[in-house]
Amino acid sequence: MKKSIITIFVLFIIYIYVSFVSLLPQSIVLLSGENINLKSLPGISKSEIVQTVNENIKNSTVEVKLLDNIMLKNISVTTLENMEVVPVGKIIGLKLYTNGILIVGFSEIEDINKNSIKPYKDSGVKEGDTIIGINNKEIEDIKSLKEIVNNSGGEDIELKLLRNGNVITTSMRPVEVGKKEYKLGLWVKDAATGVGTITFYEPQSQMFAALGHGITDSDTNQLVHIDSGEAVTSKILTIKKGENGVPGEIRGTIVNQSSVGEVYKNTSFGVYGKLNNLSALNIDLEEKKEIALRNEIEIGNAQILCTADDSNIAKEYDIEIQKIYYNNNENNKSMLIKIVDNELLNKTGGIIRGLSGAPIIQNGKFIGAITNVLVSNPEIGYAVFADLMIKEINIK
User: Fold this and answer.
1) Pair 51, 90 in one domain
2) What mean pLDDT, rounded, does the chain reach?
3) Which residue range(s) make up the domain with 129?
4) Among the listed residues 352, 358, 306, 364, the one whose alpha carbon sits nearest the alpha carbon of residue 335
5) Distance between CA 134 and CA 31 in Å, rounded?
6) Mean pLDDT on 325-330
7) Which residues participate in catalysis according to the annotation?
8) What pTM value is reported for the model?
């Protein structure tokens, strides 16, 4: 009995250490001045080895060892030195093209014999799944999907789906609805568009960040997984003021506007890409600002830079930082903020759709960007830390 208890105890300790190592990150991105904060256990040691250094980036490796001898894990650490960005605060349009075809709904269809059929019924396909392949061929757009389905002759087709990061396969039999016309009963999308605020431009990499949060599909409310995208100028048409319980919004158009860059990433902390037309946005490289570390951010006064009328000119407006969640790395609600500028309140009523991404400046440094509004009070909302946004540029 005693040996069994000892064995169970030893196995439990081993499990704790194995779990600890598996949860350590493969890589870390830091701003200059940030410390590497890694949890530890008795007998675990960590040492940093600098590999390369240049003007802007320091690469190093943290070796995690047991009893100073047994190597457990190497963690790659990238430290961003002397990082400065140009806060922008202007409205842009974003066109995102999905990595595959997003399923957003289902509909019963009538076949050529007037029978009502649900071809998806036993397939296991779910709303929010992304079709990435059919019959062992990659598929990228709705046009390709239609061609394959119409050429199926009503025979089963194999679908490769992406669901929550996992690839699954299933099959469906297209239903004949007309001469050489077949359907699956799926509502699908292969693109998404939106209007928001560009947060900053980073001159060294020529990358930009916008929104402070990701673009989600309006039907599934899931983050859109993109293959490519385009950033374009946008013209403000109207501004609907926010009221208690009713979010306001900036209504803009991207029709007949100029391309300003490409979009590469759509993440929980914003949309990212590369700018190639700075003149269209009138970006002044002399307006560069340092990025504040979290411990430099203070409760109290700050300013946002945003476009709140059809002049397309970004102006500074006063806000108040009410709470700071220093340890939050999980989502884009890093700070609780309040709009206190009467001019902006008169124009927008507070934080409205389209202002997401407006950069926040405090004590001459870039500290974050607006992300969300409290529907119950449009004067109050959330902002994301600057470091979470800038690190996304350097995470592959």
Assistant:
1) no
2) 85
3) 108-184
4) 358
5) 43
6) 89
7) 213, 341, 356
8) 0.79
